[in-house]
Design a protein that fits this description.
The complex is a heterodimer of chains A (about 200) and B (about 80).
Chain A: H1 4-28, H2 32-48, H3 59-78, H4 95-102, H5 111-117, H6 121-129, H7 133-144, H8 149-156, H9 160-184, H10 190-195
Chain B: H1 4-9, H2 11-16, H3 21-31, H4 35-54, H5 61-77
The chains are: A mainly alpha (about 200), B mainly alpha (about 80).
Chain lengths: ~200, ~80
């Protein structure tokens, strides 16, 4: 950091993007303490390379890329072997079809929307954390952070075909995990639905 | 024409437009005739939107406090104290 105004600009930018950075870190990691630590590391790296940020409007995206790269490097250093999931277990699962068959809200005219409405933001986070990081990360980067699929592949440092395959499996796992989570947490009771405002 | 099972497997990719042109056309053709798969497609659309808007973005106040202090320390010392 070369001068006071630049330092001040960094501080303003960093504080503004804290919620988004922490949310991304929390979705990528398995524990909130790890998420906070990852955000700190990303802030330090961003601070040291702030001069390379050419377009201030892209600051949020720039910091999310830094954080994701750091997370990927951490995974490599820890030598964590990705947990594969047998494809046959999830490939044929259809949340849409399961909801039609099981009909958890028998008096509803908007069954599928009511099912989604029974989830709080924290529930969605808990469902995501149930997924192996191998599949969770592409899902988070593509559908929550809205990176293009090619960018997801680049961020994860895998070929495009691998990213596409993991996204496919991740979506199936997410649908199955939503169904399992709703059953385990009694989300289908009318009381639970009413509390969450979907009735 | 492709089957419902084949079409359903590719709906998210269809929405993402990451299928090969022939596969994209095949799903498109199937959807023109299959009401059930249109329901699946609509749900896939809703689920994508749901994921984008409902993933937790909460920053607990104590975490905000610690991280803000970390940023201030970066400015003050050139590195965290």
């Amino acid at each position: 950091m070369t001068n006071k105004s630049e330092a001040s600009a960094f501080q303003q930018m960093a504080v503004e993007h804290l919620p988004g950075l922490f949310a991304l870190a929390r979705h990528l990691t398995d524990a909130d303490a790890d998420a906070e630590d990852l955000v700190q590391e990303a802030l330090l790296k961003a601070y040291r390379s702030f001069g390379s940020l050419e377009e201030p409007a892209a600051a949020g995206r720039w910091m999310r890329v830094i954080l994701t790269n750091l997370w990927r490097d951490r995974m490599r250093k820890r030598g964590r072997s990705p947990r594969e999931v047998p494809f046959d277990d999830v490939d044929d699962f259809s949340l849409y079809g399961t909801l039609v068959e099981e009909d958890p809200f028998p008096y509803s005219d908007t069954l599928h929307l009511d099912f989604l409405g029974s989830f709080s933001e924290e529930d969605v986070h808990m469902v995501l954390r149930r997924l192996p990081e191998l599949y969770r990360a592409p899902l988070v980067l593509r559908y929550i952070e809205e990176f293009a699929t090619k960018e997801v592949a680049r961020l994860l440092d895998v070929p495009l075909g691998t990213a596409l395959a993991r996204l496919h499996r991740g979506r199936k796992l997410f649908e199955k995990a939503m169904w399992d989570y709703a059953n385990e947490t009694n989300a289908f009771t009318s009381e639970a639905a009413a509390v969450r405002g979907c009735r | 024409m492709i089957s419902c099972a084949e079409a359903v497997k590719e709906l998210w990719e269809f929405l993402d437009q990451t299928l090969a042109p022939d596969d994209q056309a095949a799903v498109d053709e199937h959807l023109a005739f299959c009401r059930r798969c249109c329901g699946e497609l609509q749900f896939a659309r809703e689920l994508r939107a749901f994921l984008a808007t409902n993933a937790s973005r909460e920053l607990p106040s104590e975490v905000r406090g610690r991280l803000t202090q970390f940023i201030v320390d970066l400015d003050r010392n050139g590195r965290p104290s």
